[in-house]
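Researcher: For the record, we're logging two predictions in this thread. I'll number them. Prediction 1 follows.
Model: Prediction 1, sequence and structure:
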Amino acid sequence: MSLTITCPICGKRDGYEFRFGGEDKGPRPDEDGLTPQRWCEYVHLNECVAGVQKEWWVHKDGCGSWFTIHRDSVMNVEVATPEAHK
């Protein structure tokens, strides 16, 4: 079975309707005193967790909404919360 993702607008759909947008890294770094190296690290360095991580997804073949989900990258399944899948 392929990955299913729950869109907040359209509900549960096949993962092929969505596009991965990357890890949710939290808020952008403050621009005051931001160095090119720090910006590069924020944009390009990922944790790549083997397990549950928070991710950005877009419903590209549906409503076009961007949203975050928690996904277990080992089992490739959406989980309600990180604690729910331990």
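Researcher: Logged. Prediction 2.
Model: Prediction 2, sequence and structure:
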Amino acid sequence: MKPAETPARTDYEAVIGLEVHVELRTESKMFCSCSARFGADPNSQVCPVCLGLPGSLPVINRRAVEFGIRAGLALHCEIAPETRFDRKNYFYPDLPKGYQISQYQHPLGRGGGLQVPVDGRVLRVGIRRLHLEEDTGKSIHGGVPGLVTTDPRYSLVDFNRSGVPLMEIVSEPDLRTPAEAVAYLRELRTVLLYTGISDVRMEEGSMRVDVNVSVRPRGQAELGALVEIKNLNSFRSVERALAFDIDRQVELIAGGEPVPRETRHYDEERQITFSSRGKEEAHDYRYFPDPDLVAVTISRDWVAEVARNLPELPDARRRRYAEGFGLPAADVEVLVASPALAAFFDATVAGYPNPRTVANWVLGDLMRLLNAEGLDPAESPLPPEHLASLLKLLDQGTISGRQAKEVLEESFRTGKAPAEVVRARDMVQITDPGQLAPVVDRVVAEHPEVVEQIRGGKQQAMGFLVGQVMKRTRGQANPQVVNRLLREKILN
């Protein structure tokens, strides 16, 4: 189904809310001391608690609660003075207890919001609730190469993920288009990266998205039938699944058919959503307080302490870069999108206080080198102080712009300080007119036709002569001095 096949599309609007599940980057699980590390051998990080064995008792991970508070404050939520955990009952093969421990009636945070840059405007998306729970295990279905069994009749279960601290962030239904939904997810991911509570790697499952979408005639206040699309694990999947299902619902309504209230899944290969079951209500889960866990009191002092330790968040950093440094909007967005890149930029500016020049080098030459090596900015072998010292050498005229790029590459590759590279390669720039004048004389004498072109008004030909001088001096001549000497020789 394509948008062009739905002629009445503009007569309807979608109403979208997102439920985002984020695995917290704690050392241990939510209710036991098992490691929460990703990528270990299957079923190697389990114990009676996370396997749901009889007689085992859960203990709340204080660090996970603190991470929840940190996220709530970053999203401007009101932090509850007290919270508790409930049992959410449902059966699934990778849920060994037959219930999930999750906050329901008393979530950790409520009533926050996020300012989302989208299409040249800022959209405020409300946060309905933020609560903590435990993750489930992972089912791996047969037929996948490399498993113990590739027989499609069998499925395997890895319980390493069972009990990993999970935070769910439920937005208000403030989104109207797939593009707005993706913009919200990108901004939310960036905020969570800044807080340091999760690596939010969708490819590893540490950030997963459930979409709630309904369609109604444009201008109608009443919502349409709610459809949930479960377990989307990329921005592209979210955008495509929403686009497909909005058109599907519009087509049903325009044809006089009801939209079933249901849970659907997305088939990435066919780029369609498909029905999996009727949509559950809260009472279907039979929530009740977990009798093994006490209520958690969250003091105002604890909240204040967490607030004091929050880093500068994306919104504040955008304002500082745009208003304080005067950086272009496009540069600001690229820098802010990566906490590691923004930190590198700030550290370089601290040593070389020219933000625009630093931004040009960071977003140009440094990113080129990082991308070529497949490195994240956090993994840069070139420290910020080396880039700052390189730019100082360039300002001082010690090296030329061309030489600076060469020094940057060698410093990036070897870890040597720029000054050390310059000394080792004898790259000190020649600025003495007395040294350069004989070279200029020879170049002018060897290219009389170019000299005549310049005298005839073709000033761009001067670049050729400058290049010849640079070649003869192995790039060490100061281009400005060379330009001046050539003009004095030819035009005076």
